Amino acid sequence: MKENIIAGLDIGSTAVRLVIGHRKGGGSKESLQIIGAVSVPSEGINRGAVKSIEDVTSSISACLEKAERLVGLPVETVWVSINSPHIKCEKSRGVVAVGRSDGEINQDDVERALEAARAMSVPPNYEILHVIPVKFTVDSQEDIKDPIGMTGIRLEVETLVIQGLSSQIKNLTKAIFRTGLDIEDLVSSPLAAAEAVIGTKQKELGAALVNIGASTTSLAVFEEGELLHTAVIPIGSEHITADIAIGLRCPINLAERIKNEYGCVRPEQINKKDEIDISNLAKEENAEGELSTVSRRYLAEIIEARVEEIFNKVDNEFKSIERSGMLPGGVFLIGGGIRLTDMVEVAKRELKLPVSLGTNINVATVIDKANETEFLNALGLVVWGNEAIAAGGGFSASRTAVNKSIEKVKKWFSSLIP
């Protein structure tokens, strides 16, 4: 049974989350069953970058132990999300001559075209994470989704090349290998989450996923069923907490409690005279004497300013690909930072698009925890892994570079073990 286990590992700034799925045969989403979801607080990582390999390893080990106790099966390999502000997204083209004498295009031709697209100049400190085909051209016929079986002489592919900082990739993989786990692949965080949240129709029309985490906000934009753009913005919900701590002059732990329990994003809906009694919270957080009452409207004004900034930066990313206000499939919000009251309304106002809270629509699960907004990233990794396995180790063209890097780290790490 353990051969059919697929695990998605999401290492965030505040928590390490692991979702475990079981393949019951076949590659469809219907054949995938979620059997466990666990999380533990994370240490040693901030804004997607490893600050202490030892701390990250300890957090992953604790999460792994908890998961194995829950499902009663060993977890040996994982699909891992990478979520760093240093991720870059560029377009590249590859052109090849069709190999067969009768001109019929096969999988080898597609692989060669993707390899040709990969041969772009990458900065020495970056590595290619994914080479994602956007559209193909056969001879002069453009906008082809799947050229296999077609006839032509010249095959051209337009791809989206996602690159990550080499040092961050190596540090992350090193921390995971220390726990005894093997890595199937590293997947850009919003790409993975979209697998669980966005439907096929929305991807065709044009839709975006926005994941507001603790210290980063990541996004992925889809159109005509393909990825159009991805980016990571170095602002998250921790910055809202820090603003509250400064605005109310209170300790950070108390600011976090105030945000979670009384936070609202629309001050215009609150009476100026509304006050919040936070004396009990202050007592629980050992901050007596700091504050007893807070203006609810002032709190909302602090939160609104930072939330508006986050969505303005998201809209700037949409503008960079000329899709601002032009995604009829809508924007799906996920992550731990979206729990504030009226977050969706502010997003609609700032982005001028249909906005909704993202939910799991693609995988059946009886584990309620796996459907929580914080777990959608890890859940998407399981779906991504399931589809890759169903495609016979698919995505091979997009995986070779990062797998080479993973193999190097694995060999280096093995050489240290006596």
Automatic annotation (TrEMBL):
CDD domains: ASKHA_NBD_FtsA (cd24048)
Lineage top rank: taxon: Bacteria
GO annotation, biological process: FtsZ-dependent cytokinesis
GO cellular component term, pick one: cytoplasmic side of plasma membrane
UniProt xrefs under InterPro entries: ATPase_NBD, Cell_div_FtsA, FtsA/MreB, SHS2_FtsA
Protein keywords: Cell cycle, Cell division, Cell membrane, Membrane
Domain SHS2: residue ranges: 6-197
Pfam family, one: SHS2_FTSA
Family of this protein: Belongs to the FtsA/MreB family.
NCBIfam families (UniProt xref): ftsA (TIGR01174)
Complexes and interactors: Self-interacts. Interacts with FtsZ.
Protein name per the record: Cell division protein FtsA
